[in-house]
Amino acid sequence: MMKTIKMCKIALLIALSMGVIACGSDGKDGADGVDGQDGAAGLPGADATAPTVSVSTATNIEFINHIVADGVVTVEFNVTDESGYAITGLTDASVYLAAKTENGMQRSRDGSVGGNATVGGTSPTEGASLTLLDNGNYQLVAPMAGVQADTEALIRLQVGGGDIAKSPYVLIAKPEMMHTSTTETCYACHVDYAESDLKHAGYVALNTDGEVDFVGGCMVCHNNVPRDVDADGTSLSTGGYAKNTMQMLGHINHQNFEKDFEPANCYTCHAEPVMNTSLAGNGCADCHNTSSSSSYAQVISNSNSSEFDAREFHLNKSGLETLQAMRVSYTAETTAPQKNDAGIWCTTMSLFDISTGTKTQVNIGELYPINLKMRIVTSENCH
Q1: Rg for the chain (alpha carbons), in Å?
Q2: How far apart (Å, rounded) are the C-alpha atoms in residues 372 and 383?
Q3: pLDDT, tens digit, for every residue of 95-139?
Q4: SS3 of the chain
Q5: Do the Cβ atoms of 326 and 372 come closer than 8 Å?
Q6: Which tens digits make up the pLDDT trace of 248-275?
Q7: Rounded to an integer, what distance in angstroms lies between the CA atom of residue 19 and that of residue 207?
Q8: Angle in degrees, 0-180, between the axes of helices 295-302 and 310-318, rounded to the nearest 10
Q9: Cα–Cα distances in angstroms (integers) from residue 221 to residues 67, 72, 255, 339, in the given order
């Protein structure tokens, strides 16, 4: 009985549906129903066009790839503004390449080693081009006569100009172990150099992860090879890009560190062990003239360079061991700065001998003539 009822219901539903479908023009339409509420706006489809801009107050580079070929460097990258929108209408870009040679990193001003190229600006490079591939993606083609396909290189990129803000310098390629000093050691003193008003602050470069690479950025110009000069000292366009090499900046220009900087104290700046056995190589000749009658020249003539440890040589000459030993035996204290009768700020320094375990004040004036090398001239420092 139950089965019969169910079958009847099914037959009735089919008949009703067929009746509705089969309604002809003889019937009358019913009244319109009440309009429903508008539906929510749909999400944009996958083919929706992302917003782009042609003006920016900040420009960010995302490196994609690069190719170094004979006489030309090609770089592909993406640029966005401060809000992350793709930038179109970019017309300015520049790329710099320092080549790794047997003499270290080198970029000559005449383009014979390494090179650079610019699109846009006031001095565009002939044959260089910048092409928009799609929204925010560009291809920069940079002719460089001194570059070969197998050139291992340090490459720096910057884009922007006019309504599009200039990007930071970005290092898009860097040879392994190009240097052994680190950003952290430099920034122990040069804190946030890019934000300072110091020389070349605007040249501080980032790596492709957006982190500061302080030494790498400097070495694009201050390579391992100095710029050549002629007999009367006039700068030439050959050799390296700058007269101050990186080793000169590190080993000579930093001689006046307040504490512990000596040529033998490599760990002041170098994160990795430094063993220089090439007496005629980079660094040594910046400080020493091998043709002189100095003890350095005598050491060169009397030693086998493959067995010579330059650190030991400097250690004996600089007295660093004595300096470090003194710091174990002595400690110094200063008073709070105050103005003297002449209106000059002064602080009084006191020196104590702690070698016996007891803190005993000593007379600095009596110790100084013994040449303790503690950079203390008097017991009172005024500025």
Answers
A1: 36
A2: 23
A3: 999 999 988 899 999 999 999 999 999 999 999 999 999 989 999
A4: CHHHHHHHHHHHHHHHHHHHHCCCCCCCCCCCCCCCCCCCCCCCCCCCCCCEECCECCCEEEEEEEEEECCEEEEEEEEECCCCCEECCCCCEEEEEEEEECCEEECCCCCCCCEEEEECCCCCCCCCEEEEEECCEEEEEEECCCCCCCCCEEEEEEECECCECCCCEEEEECCCCCCCECHHHHHCCCCCHHHCCCCCHHHCEECCCCCECHHHHHHCCCCCCCEEECCCCCEEEEECCCCCCHHHHHHCCCCCCCCCCCCCCHHHCECCCCCCCCCCCCCHHHHCCCCCCCHHHHHHHHCCCCCCCHHHHHHHHHCHHHHHHHHHHEEEEECCCEECCCCCEEEEEEEEECCCCCCEEECHHHHHHHCCCCCCCCCEEEC
A5: yes
A6: 888 777 776 655 555 556 767 777 766 6
A7: 75
A8: 150
A9: 21, 20, 22, 45
pLDDT at 278: 57
